[in-house]
Amino acid sequence: KAKENKEKRIPKNTPKLKVELSEEQKEVVKLFYEYDVIFVHGDFGSGKTLSAVHTALTHYNKRQCNEIWLTRPMLKNQLAALPGTLEEKLAPYTFPLQQNLEVCQGKETTEKMLKEGKIRIMPIEVAKGCSFMDSVVIVDEYQDMDYQDFRTILTRLNSGSKMIFCGSKQQIDRQINDKSCIFKTMKLEESGLVGYITLKSNHRNPILTDIIEFLEKE
Questions:
Q1: pTM of the model
Q2: Are 32 and 55 in contact (CB under 8 A)?
Q3: 3-state helix, strand and coil shares in percent for the chain, rounded to the nearest 5
Q4: Phi and psi (nearest 5°) for 159?
């Protein structure tokens, strides 16, 4: 027990990350410490994944968890069809997650944590049977999961761990469409069981919003 308490003790000097969260994104951090499961919604450029990765890395640097798990859905049956090792198969899908890690803490630190197994990347399709212990789990692009996959990943969470779902109802893949679990999970917003936030700011080129609105207006 003493060893566990020692590991959980926050060090005096924690590594400072390379980016600061906006005031809106800092609300993600508040929810993270209030709930074990949180949902971060928002359209493109709202910084959903960056907020989740930043929060997880800060938590890890404070020695409040031992591992960070990153996962995102792949289209059904694509994993087996792709050539190469599991790591090579996943690379195109997990690049955005690794990019956010590198933005927050640099490439060298990220590669070191991946090599040491402090950051683990896995496809949702192989989550069955896993157990997330003393971890932060980030489920990115979760809107591209059906409810069964959502239930599978959610029920892997052990006591003492936290899970962040990042998604957008505007970005559902055409192959999943109305089977997306996001429509069911949106019912949780007022439940008080989970943290739930929709980020509204666009942190990419501001002209993008105007272009999309112009093209999609009635």
A1: 0.86
A2: yes
A3: 50, 15, 35
A4: -60, 140
E strand spans, the chain = 37-42, 67-72, 119-123, 135-139, 162-167, 195-199
Residue ranges of the chain with pLDDT lower than 70? 1-13, 75-90, 218
User: ∠ CA(65), CA(90), CA(165), 5° rounding?
Assistant: 45
Tally the C-alpha atoms within 13 A of residue 169's C-alpha that lie toward its C-beta. 10
- Distance (Å, whole) CA 207 – CA 131: 43
pLDDT tens, residue by residue, 131-150: 899 999 999 999 999 999 99
pLDDT of residue 202: 80
Tell me which residue of 100, 145, 148 sits closest to 123, measured CA to CA.
145
What type of residue sits at position 19?
V
Token pair for 132 = 């997330």
Work out the number of other CB atoms within 10 angstroms of the CB of residue 96.
16
Sheet holding 195-199, edge to edge: 119-123, 67-72, 135-139, 162-167, 37-42, 195-199
Q: Write out the two tokens for 161.
A: 């761990």
- Are 71 and 122 spatial neighbours (Cβ–Cβ below 8 Å)? yes
Q: What is the pLDDT of residue 84?
A: 65
Amino acid 157 reads L
Sequence-distant (≥ 6) Cβ neighbours of residue 204 within 8 angstroms: 44, 45
